[in-house]
């Protein structure tokens, strides 16, 4: 018997990626496609402009879009909802679904920094799932909200985790080059980005800096405790469809070498033993001098692996490297689904 | 009476920019268009695929291309040659032109790090022109080779100079996002860069790190003395035609604020009093949250100003900011021409 | 004494181009910047996101945006308004301005096909200005609405006119490759067009087919009479910022050759004698095998010339050629301004 | 027992696509990777810059590259070679391989228009395979050269064939918008195509015009007889990685409607009964107003289907439509492989 799931915000770019991740899923069965009033009662095909390169799954295409109201009877048998809601709606609706007894795995930013909401990259900090019981108790609910971080945060924390574990981290400096899909389908006008780049993404630098410290920090009795290093970020938008690329500089606590860092990343594989359906090796190392590249490498591990290359010494930091992540798979829908898969297997 | 000048490597991308910079120039008169054997004896129009958005100047179009041999009589009356030669040819030919009594203003990398060759960004270190006499004496020549740095170095040192002068610099970290024109017309295949970026540019990081310290260092009796700070760089190629963008992080020696840094950059204008033909205010500050952008801002000051924006605090460094430079004007042909203009006015 | 003019829809992409065309204009003085309620009372700089590569003219930057109500006293001394309004607003407001005694030179599509509204490309059919008196009389107004065609129509009719005059035209077939700026700043999301093209532009094919026949037709006592040839069009959007490119096939009534067509186009210059401020040679012929190209050639004649190349024989049609037009200058703002300049000189 | 095959020109863009098509192929086994002297003796991984988005098949990666000499013992057991050679080499080497008893399925243009060389799109004219016996007899060889057309020709003839069969064709007019991969990895510099298009592809218009008439013509006792309609073409290069898009206009002999044309295309499926490994429905019709689009639709049928949309009336021609083809799969490597699969099944 599969677990029945719903999607909130099913017609947008991340919603479409959720649908792709859940197609023929071995443990989840897609039951409810929630979207805004405009789409209500239409078939999914009518309601959405599908802009993925694979066709809409046949059954989804014909399914009728429902509301995002937790009382909608479409959610009656649903245990888990995946949220791709805009932030303002997420703030209202996600707690409402938790109150209605659902586990909400959310890609929205609204609840990420709440004190009793876990912010999880499962390879990095699945022990933070422990906060779910606190959250339920605080709010007197049967369900809970579990979030995954901002797309650009994931490549950072995934690649930093094995370094932190082995050598400790004092300082992290990151400059991102982020794909246009991160802003949603209508987010970046072509006139803004053809033959151009934009050296600013609203709120992104702050999100990366605060989220990373929460995720790489500890879950303790009385709350989350931030990781104890400094991190500075500069974010840029570039004319790439999918795939965030990051130039990352790290100063470790203990001395180390690029070779040892590469080995630590290669060995890093804490979820392997769970055999999760959406699992892929979290970090794939490329040895070519000019990789990773977003167009060529973003689909590594079906878009669930980050790809790291050019690990080398730096005059100021201990090492620098380039990390790449498929921002709408590993950095969004895939992140929520992997969280849910691990949660189901380990905690339900 | 104008000074007669030649161009070595006149048909390539930087050569074309030299031609544009020298059109109707008030003190230089273009006399010799030197190129490889393939082009010899053809009119410039026949010899070159002109890919600038302004037409070829009429007289240049009809001029006959000559050799790059300093004995060619086309160079007889020429006092200055501008070099856009590839590095291997530059290594041989630039000293030969100096021996033939010419001042060679070179955009090539071959001679930049030689002990007696000045590497000049005129707003930053024109006192390094003093090395010319040493070079002449060392080589027993009447001419000399004067270089300008790699394109991506110029935005860095121009924006760092006012900071260094006022507050001192301890650490500099830069991630670049560089335009395809920096690799020459054929340098970056479209299949390599459409919907993509490449996190590597051969030799670029090393050049930026070594050249910047030489330029920001001192000219002393017995040689150049490097600036005394550490600098780490990560270079990327992005799908932009013209305009290198750099995310720059600086730790100053003395405490300071973004506002003070902005003021220092705004006040920085050491060449203004010379009224040089190609002069533009070296640093233009943009206050919008999402500027500078290469497509919109690269032509600021006819491509001779760098544009700085987003000066702000950083958790690790004192400040971070974004700098933009037109890489084939300010970063290449314009750099050589401005060097020559100042040299002529101040030293000839 | 200059003629005072206003712009309706001053903050959008075409509005910005109007501002650039009218900067330092010898006969027009920009007096009123009309925009929607959202912008009212703000300075132009505050009200608009300026995305041109040249800075906002200083005086415009500080000017206060006014309403688009003809009763607004900002329009009191204005004789001419240029309209870059969206179609639905144009339909209401342009006749209202005409009623208020203004000449409205409109780039909007709303009124183009009205029976008493002239649709003018001045090199092609300025005798259609004759309809202005009919329109005034029909509506009992002192002002009138004068339109210019859809951007992609202009390259077509300008290049067809000299062919029609000399050899007659039986059939015209066009496939367009149109720049994203034609859809307005937000019109084409980057996700829709990076590494892609879109083989459809709403209403464009119909507009080109109907407008071309009106423009190339005759103005007669009792109305316009369409040109007497057939025209079929297929429109595509491509990832180009500015510059519509068109593959055009023409079957002429009389036999002719590519050389004769080239000569006819080269000789075509009916406005030269008027010395209009925005005038440029209407058709510039390029002889290179691979021109015109939008990035390299769109600014020919300050964006007011169309560029034609590859005029050659075709197995079905008499000739085929490629035509290029800067769609937001020659194809929009520049078209209205040139209409107004000729109207003022010849009819006022 | 699988048939052993080789690839000539294995390291280039089309060669890489051949490798992908032949991975885990049910009837072909890849035995010889032939390339130029530069690559000889290296492993394939060392010899080639692999720029596909899927990794190199493991066994190919380690295989050693061999010469393109038919006497090389690497070809001893090979029955079929696929050729992705440049035209000049193809002219020499393909007949040499035929003489050595191999069947050469070639994507090169060199031999396509030879009188006894079949030029085949298997859904359209597989009866032209009959010419193989004539060729063998003419040249006294055991092998033969079988070609597939130029990439842009295939979308044309595939979509025209069902129209011709049902309604007859009098006139065809095509304007292409072709992807950069069609020119090979280094073929189109990024500076040539970013924010641009190029209205010319050397030899392409002529190839489309001549090849289409040969393919759609008849194979008769004494030779091929061209199809009896006129066709005019205009070719353009656009900034798209993969996927040629074509605006096609057709005048049929008998009257018909867009609906009948759509039905004829939908019903067109002459290879279905053969169950060929690389087979996909040849024409997939999209009903959306703005499809096909290269980025979204090029992988339809694993890149082996062409996608047709916007079938509609035209004022001059009977219908016009947009056709899309994956130019390096269906238009190159896949075309040769499908030819070979049918040949093996039906004629060997």
TrEMBL record, chains A, B, C, D:
GO BP annotation list: 'de novo' L-methionine biosynthetic process; diaminopimelate biosynthetic process; lysine biosynthetic process via diaminopimelate; threonine biosynthetic process
Reactions catalysed according to its record: L-aspartate 4-semialdehyde + phosphate + NADP(+) = 4-phospho-L-aspartate + NADPH + H(+)
Active site: 151, 244
Binding site residues for phosphate: 112, 207
Key words, A-Z: Amino-acid biosynthesis, Diaminopimelate biosynthesis, Lysine biosynthesis, Methionine biosynthesis, NADP, Oxidoreductase, Threonine biosynthesis
Domain Semialdehyde dehydrogenase NAD-binding: 4-132
A Pfam family reported for this protein in Swiss-Prot or TrEMBL: Semialdhyde_dh
Pathway: Amino-acid biosynthesis; L-lysine biosynthesis via DAP pathway; (S)-tetrahydrodipicolinate from L-aspartate: step 2/4; Amino-acid biosynthesis; L-methionine biosynthesis via de novo pathway; L-homoserine from L-aspartate: step 2/3; Amino-acid biosynthesis; L-threonine biosynthesis; L-threonine from L-aspartate: step 2/5
Gene Ontology molecular function, alphabetical: aspartate-semialdehyde dehydrogenase activity; NAD binding; NADP binding; protein dimerization activity
Known EC number: 1.2.1.11
SUPFAM superfamilies from the UniProt entry: Glyceraldehyde-3-phosphate dehydrogenase-like, C-terminal domain (SSF55347), NAD(P)-binding Rossmann-fold domains (SSF51735)
Function of the molecule: Catalyzes the NADPH-dependent formation of L-aspartate-semialdehyde (L-ASA) by the reductive dephosphorylation of L-aspartyl-4-phosphate.
Subunit structure as annotated in this protein's UniProt entry: Homodimer.
UniProt xrefs under HAMAP family: ASADH
NCBIfam families per the UniProt record, alphabetical: asd_EA (TIGR00978), PRK08664.1 (NF006416)
Family membership noted in the UniProt record: Belongs to the aspartate-semialdehyde dehydrogenase family.
Annotated protein name in UniProt: Aspartate-semialdehyde dehydrogenase
């Amino acid at each position: 018997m599969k677990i029945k799931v719903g999607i909130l915000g099913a017609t947008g770019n991340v919603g479409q990626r959720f649908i792709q991740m859940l197609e023929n899923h071995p443990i989840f069965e897609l039951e409810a496609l929630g979207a805004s009033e405009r789409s209500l009662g239409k078939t999914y095909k009518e309601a959405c402009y599908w802009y993925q390169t694979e066709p809409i799954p046949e059954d989804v295409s014909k399914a009728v879009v429902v509301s995002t109201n937790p009382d909608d009877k479409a959610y009656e048998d649903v245990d888990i909802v995946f949220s791709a809601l805009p932030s303002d709606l997420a703030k209202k609706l996600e707690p409402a679904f938790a109150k209605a007894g659902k586990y909400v795995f959310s890609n929205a930013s609204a609840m990420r920094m709440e004190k009793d909401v876990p912010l999880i990259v499962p390879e990095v900090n699945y022990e933070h799932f422990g906060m779910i019981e606190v959250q339920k108790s605080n709010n007197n609910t049967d369900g809970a909200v579990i979030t995954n971080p901002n797309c650009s945060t994931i490549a950072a924390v995934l690649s930093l985790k094995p370094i932190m574990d082995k050598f400790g981290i004092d300082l992290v400096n990151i400059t991102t080059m982020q794909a246009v899909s991160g802003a949603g389908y209508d987010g970046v006008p072509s006139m803004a980005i053809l033959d151009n780049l934009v050296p600013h993404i609203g709120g992104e630098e702050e999100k990366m800096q605060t989220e990373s410290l929460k995720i790489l920090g500890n879950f303790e009795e009385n709350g989350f405790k931030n990781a104890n290093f400094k991190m500075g970020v500069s974010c840029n938008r570039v004319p790439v469809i999918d795939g965030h690329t990051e130039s990352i500089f790290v100063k470790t606590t203990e001395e180390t070498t690029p070779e040892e860092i590469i080995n630590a990343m290669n060995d890093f594989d804490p979820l392997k033993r769970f055999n999760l359906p959406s699992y892929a090796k979290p970090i794939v190392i490329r040895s070519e001098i000019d990789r990773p590249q977003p167009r060529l490498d973003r689909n590594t591990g079906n878009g669930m692996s980050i790809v790291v290359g050019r690990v080398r010494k730096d005059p100021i930091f201990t090492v620098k490297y380039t990390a790449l992540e498929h921002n709408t798979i590993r950095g969004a829908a895939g992140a929520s689904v992997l969280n849910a898969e691990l949660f189901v297997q380990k905690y339900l």
